């Protein structure tokens, strides 16, 4: 089964571009208003909150995602001059940076997630 990624933002063209970059995984694109319902009703391995989502809405979405089980990996993308503290890993955009950082981040986050899950399974087996 493909890992699922939720891309949240307000610029459809930017979200489509990010979905293309992440085509190795199953992506869902939502604007801020519909993202909350998606987070509450669907399971995602990764939630990525784009830079055009306000800090208030980003915090609301992050809080909802953290209530899910299992908790998805969460990334906030912000403009370089944005200083919002959202309590999750945040990537500050550099206009000269290649967009290749995004699939690299997702792959690393999902690999870490798989390692943590495997370690937990080992611990649970030992406890039996």
Molecular structure report:
The structure is a single chain. By secondary structure, the chain is of the alpha/beta class. The protein has one domain (4-127): Response regulator (Rossmann fold). 46% of the residues lie in helices and 20% in strands. It has 4 helices and 5 strands, in the order E-H-E-H-E-H-E-E-H. The chain has helices spanning 12-21, 32-41, 55-66, 101-127, and strands at residues 4-8, 26-30, 46-49, 73-79, 89-93. A 5-stranded parallel beta sheet has the order 2-1-3-4-5, with helices on both faces. Strand 1 (4-8), helix 1 (12-21) and strand 2 form a beta-alpha-beta unit. Helix 2 (32-41) runs parallel beside helix 3 (55-66).
Lay out the secondary structure.
Blueprint lengths: L3 E5 L3 H10 L4 E5 L1 H10 L4 E4 L5 H12 L6 E7 L9 E5 L7 H27 L1
Parallel strand pairs: 1-2, 1-3, 3-4, 4-5
**Element pattern in H and E:** EHEHEHEEH
The helix count comes to 4
Output mean pLDDT: 93
- Helical amount among residues, as a percent range? 40-55%
Quick gist of this model?
The chain is an alpha/beta fold and about 130 residues long. The chain has helices spanning about 10-20, 30-40, 55-65, 100-125, and strands at about 5-10, 25-30, 45-50, 75-80, 90-95.
Descriptive tags:
128 residues, 5 strands, single chain, five-stranded parallel beta sheet
């Amino acid at each position: 089964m493909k890992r699922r990624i939720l891309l949240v933002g307000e610029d459809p063209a930017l979200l489509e571009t990010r979905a293309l970059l992440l085509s190795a995984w199953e992506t869902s694109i939502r604007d801020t208003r519909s993202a909350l319902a998606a987070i509450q009703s669907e399971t995602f391995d990764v939630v990525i909150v784009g830079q055009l989502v306000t800090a208030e809405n980003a915090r609301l979405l992050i809080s909802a995602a953290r209530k899910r089980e299992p908790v998805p990996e969460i990334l906030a993308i912000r403009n370089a001059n944005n200083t919002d503290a959202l309590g999750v890993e945040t990537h500050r955009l550099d206009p000269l940076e290649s967009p290749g950082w995004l699939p690299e981040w997702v792959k690393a986050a999902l690999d870490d997630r798989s390692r943590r899950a495997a370690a937990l399974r080992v611990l649970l087996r030992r406890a039996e």
